[in-house]
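Mods, move this if it's the wrong board.
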Amino acid sequence: MKTPQLVAVLIAAVIAIAARLVPMPMYNFSALSALAILSGAVIRPVWLAVLIPVAVRLLTDTIIHLSTGYGFYGSMPFDYVAYVLLAGIAYFIQPRMIPQAIGMALAATLIFFAISNLGAWCMPHAGQYLYPRTLEGLLTCYRNGLPFMKGTFVSDMVFTIVFFTALQAFSVSAKQPAAGEVR
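Not the wrong board. Structure tokens:
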């Protein structure tokens, strides 16, 4: 892995941590999917690409839990699976250009929505199921999740564009000779 890629991922991880711990303008406004996409696109080996967003999520869930008591909940394994899947898909697709990354961000929004709401439907929260174990209950869960999808979509787009723009800028600056240096 090249230094500009490592710098971009480390900065993205710090931003993802801050974005989870600071109050945001809308529900589900998070940089974690964008971090998973960036990690999958540039980090090798694949286990490390997957580990980065999962570790950031686990760290922030722990901090949130210690400060509020609400960092862990019944369906959260589904969220983790979504980040693993996103990093894995990005690992194989390897989006490097902004248009590819935007397409991946759109897919990330849909994948996270589908998986996380499936978890909310089929796993108990605080010992109780939120929805009946029926098709109608599942559809109600997805319908109730739509308002949260807005924050996911906006943040996936914003952070993915920012992260991949930074990656390209770091890559270009790494290729530039230093002042007075001749190559």
